[in-house]
Amino acid sequence: MDSTDSTSTPAFRRVLLKLSGESFCRPGEGGISVDEVSRIARQVSRVAARGVQLAIVVGGGNILRGAQLSRGSDVIKEATAHYMGMTATVINGLALQDALESVGCETRLMTTIRMDEIAEPFIRRRALSHLERGRIVVLATGTGSPFVTTDTAAALRGKELGVEVLLKATRVDGVYSADPEKNPHAMLYQQLTYDQVLRDELKVMDMTAIGMCFESALPILVFNFKREGNIERAVAGEPIGTWVAAKSRPRPTPGSA
């Protein structure tokens, strides 16, 4: 089955999807693959067509990672490298915006660093208005401050925009006890609590982002978006990936919205 039943009721009304920079390129490559961006856009458009309000935070690691650029070098200062990484997310945001509009979606690209010729400034009330009008909001430049990851930006925006879940798109099926690409015996977790993630230092998101979700009681679903239709399945509440939440926040079921 390539996608979920389009007639089923989504489990969530408003979600935030976190896409890493690697989402925009083929495995092991860099830059932007039109095929990969188009594939994401098709899945997202089907989610939006079911009435789900969707904000998307994009990373920029496929183009430039600020932390890596400045490491071991005195030429480019670390803060400057992080700002360079933020501008890389805008390139991905522009690509995703055009791909979404090519399949009939109405979008807005918003940034925390002013770029008035190509994007709107991020203003919480304006972003909420766009979501309520059915527009997909693409969020670039992270928090606008250096030394902060786009994972943390996703947790922050998720709280600000009142989303019901943070969808963390990855290239593996969820959270494992070890790196599944290196250890074939790694165990896939179906559900985790924030406490378990923090205690065992599991690779879900960076610890600042996890702590923010913990304090905000914002659940996280880590899933493999490379499988066709998985973004739709995640929004529908199907049992894919790893559900991370407080013990009192169970995984939703299909049609529970």
Automatic annotation (TrEMBL):
State the oligomer form and interacting partners: Homohexamer.
EC id: 2.7.4.22
Q: What processes in GO biological process is this protein linked to?
A: 'de novo' CTP biosynthetic process; UDP biosynthetic process
Q: Keyword Cell cycle on this protein?
A: no
Q: What is this protein called?
A: Uridylate kinase
Give the protein's function.
Answer: Catalyzes the reversible phosphorylation of UMP to UDP.
CDD domains assigned to the protein according to its UniProt record, in alphabetical order: AAK_UMPK-PyrH-Ec
Q: Where does ATP bind?
A: 18-21, 61, 65, 170, 176, 179
Q: Which domain of life is it from?
A: Bacteria
List of residues binding UMP? 60, 143-150
Which transformation does this protein catalyse, written as a reaction? UMP + ATP = UDP + ADP
Keyword field:
ATP-binding, Cytoplasm, Kinase, Nucleotide-binding, Pyrimidine biosynthesis, Transferase
Q: What class of enzyme is it?
A: transferase
**What are the Aspartate/glutamate/uridylate kinase domain coordinates in residue numbering?**
14-224
